[in-house]
Structure to design on (72 residues):
C-alpha cells in the first residue's frame, strides 16, 4: 500500500467528490461502501487525489492493478 505525505487538506467539496467516486467503484466491484475492501479503496483514492489525480476516470484507472508481464 502506498501513502503519500501531504500537507494539503480536503474540504467538503473534495470529500463529496471522493465519496461519489468511491460509491461508483464499489458498485462496479460489487462491494459495500462500509466494507474493509471499500476502506482500502477510499484510502487509495485520497492518496491519489492528494498526489494530484483529480479526474474520476483517472482515479479509477489508478486503482486497477498493473497488467501481468507477458511470458518471454
Amino acid at each position: 500500500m502506498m501513502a503519500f505525505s501531504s500537507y494539503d487538506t480536503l474540504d467538503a467539496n473534495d470529500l463529496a467528490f471522493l465519496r461519489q467516486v468511491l460509491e461508483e467503484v464499489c458498485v462496479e466491484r460489487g462491494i459495500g461502501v462500509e466494507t474493509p475492501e471499500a476502506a482500502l479503496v477510499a484510502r487509495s483514492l485520497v492518496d491519489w487525489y492528494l498526489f494530484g489525480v483529480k479526474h474520476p476516470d483517472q482515479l479509477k484507472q489508478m486503482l486497477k492493478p498493473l497488467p501481468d508481464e507477458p511470458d518471454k
Residues 14 and 49 are 9 Å apart (CA to CA). The mean pLDDT is 87. Residues 34-64 form one domain. The helical segments are 12-29, 36-51, 56-62.
